[in-house]
Design a protein that fits this description.
single chain; 342 residues; alpha+beta; Pdz3 Domain; 2 domains; 5 helices; 17% helix; 46% strand
């Protein structure tokens, strides 16, 4: 700044200084306008939402994956069609005899009137395997390959927020493994709790409604997103920018009994400096003695529970440290809002 003033003085006292003075005035004015615009653009994130905390059920379409094996009862004996095949639980069925498989019904259609078929499987998300498997008829005359398969995923999680302006929501705080970008959101009522202990995950046991309350349209690493059928009344809350979240006391909003939301004390013990969307930006510890007594810490079904600090929504619970279930991680609420709006 001092150098600039000296330079300006020298120019103003030279021949033709009046013209130069006008040029410099325009340059300085342009600089001030640019600086003002930059200051405005630096703080444009503002969002008010309806806070979540409700227990929800998820029914998500998925790739057809193998969840078990069974012996097929034929007219003569029990048979294991898969015993000489290279098949493991968790494998995803990509095709049968080079025909794409997208649902359980596809399998039934593609093995009709056959004694053997070739499966193309995806294992561990990266290895493709081809293997033959026998087709046998059960005692009812229907073809079977003796595999338990599933093309939908059912689960329990927690609503993080609802956007009343767009009738959209964000929940869960992480992705649903093997899930696709289509599904339904259901009401959920918690019936019982399996407590967590070091090395043993806990879980919420729930009853799910049959009538959907919304749709699932995005399944991402920071949560699930979609449309809600009816926007309910609820407490409005502002969303905190990721850069303003700090270590210290906070609260978790979740359900452990029926459908009643409760606030529980937590401590944010670490905040990561994330400039863009990423997971595990918040590390936290459950400090509430009542919650620890009920659940042992963070359990399955709590994912998506809002993290609230100083009256702002700052994040959503997303992960637990299995060896120390009172410790877990959350995703910044700002990233969920921006993902849900994209």
């Amino acid at each position: 700044m001092v150098l600039f003033k000296i330079l300006l003085s020298c120019i103003l006292y030279t021949k033709g200084g009046i013209s130069i003075r006008k040029i410099l005035s325009l340059i300085i004015l342009s600089f001030l306008i640019c600086a003002f615009n930059l200051d405005i653009n630096a703080s444009t994130f503002e969002k008010t939402i309806i806070i979540g905390g409700e227990s929800i059920g998820l029914e998500l379409n998925s790739k057809v994956h193998i969840i078990g094996f069974y012996e097929v009862e034929t007219d003569n004996k029990k048979v294991s069609p898969w015993e000489n095949s290279n098949i493991l639980e968790g494998d995803i069925i990509i095709s049968i005899d080079n025909q794409k498989v997208e649902s359980n019904a596809d399998i039934a259609n593609l093995i009709k009137n056959k004694d053997k078929v070739r499966l193309k499987l995806l294992r561990d998300g990266e290895n493709y395997i081809k293997t033959d498997i026998k087709v046998v008829k059960n005692k009812n005359g229907k073809e079977s390959i003796g595999l338990y398969v599933k093309d939908k995923i059912l689960g329990v999680g927690t609503m993080t927020y609802i956007d009343p302006e767009t009738q959209t929501y964000g929940a869960l705080g992480h992705s649903v493994a093997n899930g696709e970008d289509q599904g339904q959101l259901l009401l959920s009522t918690i019936k019982s709790i399996r407590k967590a202990s070091p090395g043993v995950p806990g879980e919420k046991y729930a009853v799910l409604s049959t009538a959907p309350i919304g749709t699932i349209t995005k399944n991402t690493e920071i949560g699930i997103f979609g449309k809600i059928n009816n926007v309910r009344r609820g407490s409005h809350m502002k969303v905190q920018e990721a850069k303003n979240v700090r270590p210290g006391k906070a609260q978790l909003l979740t359900v452990v009994h029926g459908d009643s939301k409760e606030f529980f004390d937590i401590e944010i013990i670490e905040v990561r400096n994330q400039k863009t969307c990423a997971t595990k930006g918040i590390k936290l510890k459950i400090t509430d003695t009542e919650l620890l007594s009920e659940t042992g810490g963070i359990i399955q079904g709590m994912s998506g529970s809002p993290i609230i600090q100083d009256g702002y929504l700052v994040g959503a619970l997303s992960h637990v440290v299995i060896s120390s279930p009172q410790i877990g991680y959350g995703v910044f609420a700002q990233w969920m809002i921006e993902e849900g709006c994209s």
